């Protein structure tokens, strides 16, 4: 895998390392999509995923896929929220 590709095939995904910088860029991208109305009833639209792939690919100078962005959002098993919890409102009373 070159340093400019992320998620091209199964073996690449096994070797891919997600960094804190990528995490921050991804969370910011999700917030942008949410702010722009591409998250409806807590679910990102297909256009939101396309936008996130484009934004992350440009910002991080890597080739991202929708599948990789979905895995980052929901976790590898697809059952639980991973990064999307970062968009939940913070209860300031806690």
From TrEMBL:
UniProt superkingdom: Eukaryota
Protein name: Uncharacterized protein
């Amino acid at each position: 895998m070159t340093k400019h590709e992320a998620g091209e095939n199964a073996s690449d995904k096994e070797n891919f390392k997600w960094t804190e910088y990528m995490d921050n860029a991804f969370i910011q991208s999700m917030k942008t999509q949410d702010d722009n109305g591409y998250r409806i009833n807590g679910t990102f639209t297909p256009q939101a995923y396309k936008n996130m792939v484009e934004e992350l690919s440009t910002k991080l100078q890597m080739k991202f896929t929708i599948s990789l962005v979905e895995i980052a959002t929901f976790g590898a098993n697809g059952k639980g929220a991973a990064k999307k919890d970062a968009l939940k409102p913070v209860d300031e009373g806690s």
